[in-house]
Amino acid sequence: MKPFTYERATSAAEAASAAAGRKGAKFIAGGTNLLDLMKLEIEAPVHLIDVNGTGLDKMEETDEGGLRIGALVSNTALASDIRVRRDYGVLTRAIVAGASGQLRNKATTGGNLLQRTRCSYFYDTNQSCNKRKPGSGCAAKGGYSRQLGIVGVSDACIATYPGDMAVALRVLDAVVETMKPDGTTRAIPIGEFHKLWGDTPHIETALEPGEIITAVTLPKPLGGTHIYHKVRDRRSYAFALVSVAAVLDENGKGRVAVGGIAPRPWRVEAADAALPDVRAAAQALTQGASPTDQNAFKIALVERTLAGVMAKARGEAA
């Protein structure tokens, strides 16, 4: 790990201002992903701004009937909150499907959105990776790609966004609230927060330099049946090959988002419109897919996982 300096911020405005004034600065809260990347020298911030004292750890109901979740609310606190369990069950189920209890105790809502891909070539500094070193190439293309993306990828990068929580936030149409160094704020729809790779896979989110996540807002509850189903190579503590977050009514109509296949939680309007026709919805979700020989199975797996989710919604599966 390379040397760095450190300070504690007491407000979001102070943190954003500090980041703007120091090139190479990074925010740190739970540190569950950033510290690993620093140890491997994939991330080498010259200055860390500890945001744990900024007071962004509250949850409150909004005037619109939704829920505002502070960026520092831990994954454990979020998943166990009675309002979330009652009204946004897909979010609780997605969070519990990820990581371990110890990590969920430290991981935060804001940090979870910013976790970086688990592509093995990104983590291996001996390999070329346009995400880690722009312009160096993509060793994953032609390499081991079983876990990697099939839609929304590019010639520059075929990595996936790894998280579970954001897949549920996408199906719920959450909004990410931020503050810039000049004190202005933004509300970014979750569907626009994570970028497609294109030619610049190192630019992963809509955040500008120094901009800090302050909260995530959920709209008023949708009702319906909330399901999160994650398919992975082992039962626990593994990232998704394919995951499906769904909110469905009694007729099987509703909305779905898919994880494990793209640079961001993947939701397609045509797929929502096609429900409850599983095959048509799956075809819409994988339209334009460009898989490798090793991960082409994900196209069929999306349909099978969605079929399982629909069966569960009908009470036909555990």
From TrEMBL:
It holds the Pfam family FAD_binding_5. The lineage of its organism: Bacteria, Pseudomonadati, Pseudomonadota, Alphaproteobacteria, Sphingomonadales. This is Xanthine dehydrogenase family protein subunit M. InterPro entries: CO_DH_flav_C, CO_DH_flav_C_dom_sf, Diverse_Substr_Oxidored, FAD-bd_PCMH, FAD-bd_PCMH-like_sf, FAD-bd_PCMH_sub1, FAD-bd_PCMH_sub2, Mopterin_DH_FAD-bd. Keywords: FAD, Flavoprotein. Residues 1-223 form the FAD-binding PCMH-type domain. PANTHER family: ALDEHYDE OXIDOREDUCTASE FAD-BINDING SUBUNIT PAOB (PTHR42659:SF5), XANTHINE DEHYDROGENASE SUBUNIT C-RELATED (PTHR42659). GO terms for molecular function: FAD binding; oxidoreductase activity. The keyword Flavoprotein applies.
